[in-house]
Amino acid sequence: MLAVKNMEVGYGESTVIRDVTMQVEPGKVVCLMGRNGVGKTTLVKAIMGILKSSKGSITYKDHKLHTASPHLRAKSGIGYVPQGREIFGQLTVYENIWMGLEGTKPRKKEIPPAAIEKFPILKEFFARKGGDLSGGQQQQLAFARALASEPELLILDEPTEGIQPSIVQDIQQVIRDIKEQHDTAILLVEQSLEFVKSVADYVYVIQKGTVVASGDVSILDDEQVKHYLVV
User: Fold this and answer.
1) Domains in the chain: ranges and CATH
2) Which of 131, 133, 154, 188 is the most exposed place for a label (fewest CB within 10 A)?
3) Which helix (H) or strand (E) covers residue 98, if one does?
4) Which of 107, 142, 108 is nearest to 122 (CA)?
């Protein structure tokens, strides 16, 4: 479904991602792991078209994406929950979710019920401004906004970062539910090994912008992964 090949990405003269090759299969949960600052978010932003790659290619459903604009990538069926959530603070919860429909082609006229049903607490806050929600509630809102487009590929960048345990459990269950439906692939950026082992099928570990380990979760070497996570 998604294939990244020999990707190189940076900021100005500084190269952050070096020769990264990875893939995400349909219906699977693939995780990117690594310490802070090793390039995980940079790679995700390159996949979404927010950053331009200097080398390599991105293929999604057999179409080359590395020259496409971000909005065309969204309309191709990719949903994105960025690190930090980036919800619209002055818009209501309902309006924030509605914005997710901009990523549909043709543009949907109604929010799919499943986008809201996965986080039922949001119904109580429809009229409240997004900026007035707690961090955990904003994360749920960002997740629901991405699901509104009914994506075939969902990219989640640190969805549990700074979130209270109860909402982490909710997000964990939503990922499991999506996985069980077998119609949406997930690329997950996460640092909690316990969380990853509970939801992922495959893991790529990044160190200094390069993939240094990869494999099925079922045969994952916990100590090896922890070595690349501990500061």
Assistant:
1) 2-229 (3.40.50.300)
2) 131
3) helix 93-99
4) 142
